[in-house]
Design a protein that fits this description.
binds 2-keto-3-deoxygluconate, three-stranded antiparallel β-sheet, binds magnesium ion, ten-stranded mixed β-sheet, 18% strand, TIM Barrel, alpha/beta
């Protein structure tokens, strides 16, 4: 089973996606997600110029050997561009192996450890009323766990709040909350930030949400790297009465030591790592039990093979998965996360934001969403097919994530 064709397909139905498509000499096709939001074309160049020529003629069955060859032979290791490219190869090879065996990928990873995957959705609002409506609408869609993001008095615009969402192009729909469609344009949008106002306001919102929705509903919150360690400690402590499922990215991820300080002050569970790329980024914080959930994405952590190793390591410390699943992870990356999540013992929760109708036209999927639970389905491989003609209708468009400045103009983590 020799790889005899490797194509890199860029499409932008509602946002940009990069997909690697491998074909074997016996006609099997496997796809992998290599999308790196806002820096997509860097991965396209890495794949086309440096990975595709190395894949042609290789045995498609040798997933681990191909991973090690791409990782070690380059000399230059880690980093989001390299690891997204390797992730796409890894996913595509698991897809092919599943199709060759006639099995869904989760069966090849050891079989199902549960019947479905608890998933959380994103609710938000600039006011409590708007937020409550958003929580209710997520509950109506079946979500049994909900991330809560709130506007902050005095701040005009915060990443992740519904009123900032743009509309689905051409759909006439308004106010869909997520980051799809992406904000197209030649420059990133500037937003404002004030951590003290945020720290004062957020606990009042969680109190209101608990009063409205009761103690049972699992609630999550994303701090989006905006706090210093002592500010994060303060927030974790002030949120303890509201029993969060997790507080995510409370400090910038570069410095694992910060989490030690946060841990000394709060029992609010911590989730981190959506921008991490390897097990080595996690090594210290797992070993020292500084987190409770691993947020890595299959797409950015070198694929199913490498994220599984990371999660197996985390399992020794009772740390669970909380794989990244925003709409900038393509349906291929989401399917890979579902197969992995279904098979491992230490699954925690899966982030899930529905893709747009246009995205679903390009990527035909077989996962199911039942009563707040995801399941990857039982088709051989990953269970996602890319419609190349539909993909061709939506060419790449430059799009950036926003960024923050403080009132005095200082650039801040966003
Ligand atoms: O590409 C960046 C987004 O995926 C990220 O900002 C979303 O923080 C995010 C989340 O938790 O889904
Ligand atoms: Mg996040």
């Amino acid at each position: 089973m020799i790889i005899d064709r490797a194509e890199v397909i860029v499409t932008s139905p509602s946002r940009n996606f990069v997909t690697l498509r491998l074909t074997t000499d016996d006609g099997l096709v496997g796809i992998g997600d290599a999308t790196l939001n806002g820096r997509e074309l860097a991965v396209v160049a890495y794949l086309k110029d440096h990975v595709v020529p190395l894949l042609l003629g290789r045995d498609a069955h040798r997933i681990e050997d191909t991973w090690q060859f791409l990782y070690r032979s380059a000399y230059w290791r880690r980093g989001p561009v390299t690891m997204a490219a390797i992730a796409a190869v890894d996913m595509a090879l698991w897809d092919i192996k599943g199709k060759a065996a006639g099995m869904p990928v989760y069966q090849m990873l050891g079989g199902a450890s549960r019947t479905g995957l608890l998933a959380y959705g994103h609710a938000s609002g600039t006011s409590n009323e708007e937020l409550f409506d958003s929580v209710r609408s997520h509950q109506e869609q079946g979500f049994k766990a909900i991330r809560v993001q709130t506007g902050v008095p005095g701040l005009k615009s915060i990443y992740g709040i519904a009123s900032n969402a743009t509309y689905e192009p051409g759909s006439g729909k308004k106010g869909r909350y997520d980051y799809e469609p992406a904000v197209r344009g030649a420059l990133p949008k500037e937003e404002d930030w004030d951590t003290r106002s945020y720290l004062r306001h957020v606990p009042t919102v969680f109190e209101a949400v608990r009063n409205e929705f009761g103690p049972e509903l699992p609630l999550l919150h994303d701090g989006h790297h905006r706090m210093t360690p002592i500010q994060a400690a303060q927030l974790g402590k002030s949120l303890e009465p509201y029993d969060l499922f997790w507080l995510e990215d409370c400090t910038p991820a570069e410095n694992p030591e910060s989490l030690r300080l946060v841990r000394q002050h709060t029992t609010t569970p911590l989730a981190i790592g959506e921008i991490f790329n390897t097990v080595w980024d996690y090594q210290q914080i797992i070993r020292e039990q500084l987190i409770d959930y691993v947020r890595g994405a299959v797409t950015h952590m070198g694929g199913i093979s490498h994220l599984k190793k990371t999660l197996d390591y985390a399992a020794q410390y009772q740390i669970k998965s909380g794989m990244h699943g925003p709409t900038d992870i393509s349906p291929v990356g989401m399917a890979a996360a579902m197969h992995l999540g279904l098979s491992i013992h230490n699954f925690g929760i899966q982030e899930y934001m529905k893709h747009s109708d246009r995205t679903n036209e390009v990527f035909q999927q077989s996962f199911t969403w039942t009563d707040g639970m995801l399941h990857p389905g039982d088709l051989p491989g990953l269970g996602v097919e890319l419609d190349v003609d539909a993909a061709g209708k939506y060419p790449y468009e430059q799009a950036y994530l926003p960024f923050n400045r403080l009132a005095d103009g200082t650039v801040h983590d966003w």
